[in-house]
Amino acid sequence: MNPNTLGALVTVATPAKSHVELQSSKMLIHELAVERPEILDYLRTIPADKQEVALVHALQVGVMEIVARRRRMPKAS
């Protein structure tokens, strides 16, 4: 199957251990364990019915910060 096909799955880790699947327009996370106290403490401050939205927002903010930092890094020659 062509990985560029709309809706195709792209695994981030080895298929036997992958908990993250990237599709053409979304990411699926299965049985992912997060053990960072800072993340857990933050999510505990959010009402249970809003935690999923808060996690997605945190991922968006974190990824955008990483992208911005990479853009600011000087290119290696």
What features would you describe in this structure?
- By secondary structure, the chain is of the alpha+beta class.
- The protein has two domains: 1-33, no CATH class; 34-77.
- The chain is built from two helices and three strands, in the order E-E-E-H-H.
- It has helices at residues 37-44, 51-72; strands at residues 10-11, 20-22, 27-29.
- A three-stranded antiparallel beta sheet has the order 1-2-3, with no helix packed on it.
- A hairpin with an 8-residue loop joins strand 1 (10-11) and strand 2 (20-22).
- The longest helix has 22 residues, at 51-72.
- The protein starts with 9 loop residues before the first strand and ends in a 5-residue tail after the last helix.
Which structural class do the helices and strands define? Answer: alpha+beta
Which sequence of strands runs across the widest sheet?
A: 1-2-3
Calculate Rg over CA atoms: 16 Å
User: Sheet bearing the most strands, described?
Assistant: 3 strands, antiparallel
Mean pLDDT: 85
Can you tell me the number of structural domains?
A: 2
Number of helices: 2
Helical proportion, percent range: 25-40%
What's the shape?
Answer: extended
Distance, first to last CA:
37 Å
Order of helices and strands: EEEHH
User: Which spans of ≥5 residues are poorly predicted at pLDDT below 50?
Assistant: none
How much of the sequence lies in strands comes to 5-15%
| SS elements, strand count | 3
